[in-house]
Automatic annotation (TrEMBL):
GO terms for molecular function: nucleic acid binding. Coiled coil: none annotated. One of its GO terms (biological process) is DNA integration. This is Integrase catalytic domain-containing protein. Pfam families: rve. Residues 1-99 form the Integrase catalytic domain. InterPro entries: Integrase_cat-core (IPR001584), Retrovirus_Pol_polyprotein (IPR050951), RNaseH-like_sf (IPR012337), RNaseH_sf (IPR036397). Gene3D superfamilies: Ribonuclease H-like superfamily/Ribonuclease H (3.30.420.10).
Amino acid sequence: MQKMPVPCGIWGLVSLVIDGPLHLRSTGNRYILTCMDYLTRYPECIPLPDMHAKTIAKAFVTNIVLRHGTPRMLPTDCGTQFLSELFQEMCRILGIEKI
């Protein structure tokens, strides 16, 4: 298990976890993307209709990056959506170190 680096500030080190599938909601959402700031332990939960890389990247940028700023580091699990070329490119463009 890798030791986590010390956060450089609020929303500087953010973890992403996907939960689901859950019971289908009337809104069409079946998954929850949980984004947690390592410094404050403040979580944000974002409902998702699917867990495709494009959906997750859009939700992350819209709900986290545009509201709180771009994190410097982003630990995730080894889910295929986080290992996808699209997600890796998003991290590269935003200057996020994916750990």
